[in-house]
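Q: Structure tokens for this one, please.
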Amino acid sequence: MKRVGMFVWNHFTNDARVLRECTTLSKNGYDVDLFCIDDPEDNSIEQYEEVNENFRVHRLERYPKLLTGMQKVYKTLRRNKLLLVVAGLIWLLFVYLIPLITIPITVLSALLLKTKVRVVWIRGSMIVRMIIKAHRGNYDIYHSNDLNTLPQGYVAAKWRMKKKKLIYDSHEVQTSRTGYEHPMYKKFEGFFINRMDEMYVENHTRAKYNEDLYGFYPNVLHNYPFKQKVEDKEKVDLHAMLGIDKEEKILLYQGGVQTGRGLDKLVEAFPMFDDGVLVFIGEGRIKEDLIQKVEDLGLSNKIRFLPKVPLKELPKYTRNAYLGFQVLNNVCFNHYSASSNKLFEYMMSEVPVVACDFPEIKNVVIDNEVGLTVDSHNPKEIAEAVNKLLKDEALRNKLSENCIAAREQYNWESEQKHLLAVYNKL
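A: Here is the predicted structure, written as tokens:
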């Protein structure tokens, strides 16, 4: 049985693509160890987890032990003023007696507790821990998910006497992505791109972009979810959970609450909706700002927010929706070229969509008649599409029925063969 060492730069609690890949590999003759990051603030997850007999998860400590110790000492001294004074006097004595040692230590400690230096220290230490753990595993194939784990995969696979195979699985367009504007990222990816053995991207639009940029057409592995059974209708009672009338139509957005996803435009469009309650399920950097915007507009009773839901439970929430939103904004090529997971998650739950008119998304929505596409930068156009489906329930139900046929094509059970084909070749 071939052994796989895989990396991902998150806690592996809601990473659908990586879960699907590891599950498929573990059920088709591969033994998989996944290296990710522990979350010390979440007691519900374990540092070591056995998903099945051939798939294990290793969540490595997030913070260096030295930093953790320093922070504990610092908090203790802040709470006890007398202890702080005594410690300060003792330290001054050491500075006086052995300045060549204590002064550099003082300066270094102060630097390490500064935010930017601390971030570099934490991330650098995590990278080193991943490399050491994976290198010792001596796997047959190493698999790096996204650019932020490509160095780990490269060192673990190639810095050895007998080099191993390395797969680069780019979930995003790393050279045109929100937060990745600096030209350093293109140079960084360009350095490693010719040092790996195989590469996956999410769709053919991104594959062509990669070909124009680097001169080769990578493997395409679409971001399709596991297929749901037609008879599976189990739901969480979202109406009761939110305290809203059962006749209220739930207009749903599920996923990351991040910049560039058109969520501010949804809030701006909502006053023009004829009916319904807008529900956001997920977490992200702009969630608090979005909640504040809703409060400022006096819409808190009609726009609701729920926390992130475990992947396995999410369909039970999704099935409550009258329609779903996928309204990315064209802020970078990564968004413009996306065919993101939530589009197909809605489809699996027979929920028609109001979606942006970007090429990959539009092709799926229009060709399969599972929703309406709009200019996602225009709140008025979003509202018009929503109102069309609110007024015409027959149209909405027809689009919902079309999802049943479409999900026979857009599912992981069909797509996984492209993952296995590359692995089997290696």
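A few notes: Residues 41 and 95 are 37 Å apart (CA to CA). The first strand starts at residue 2 and ends at 7.
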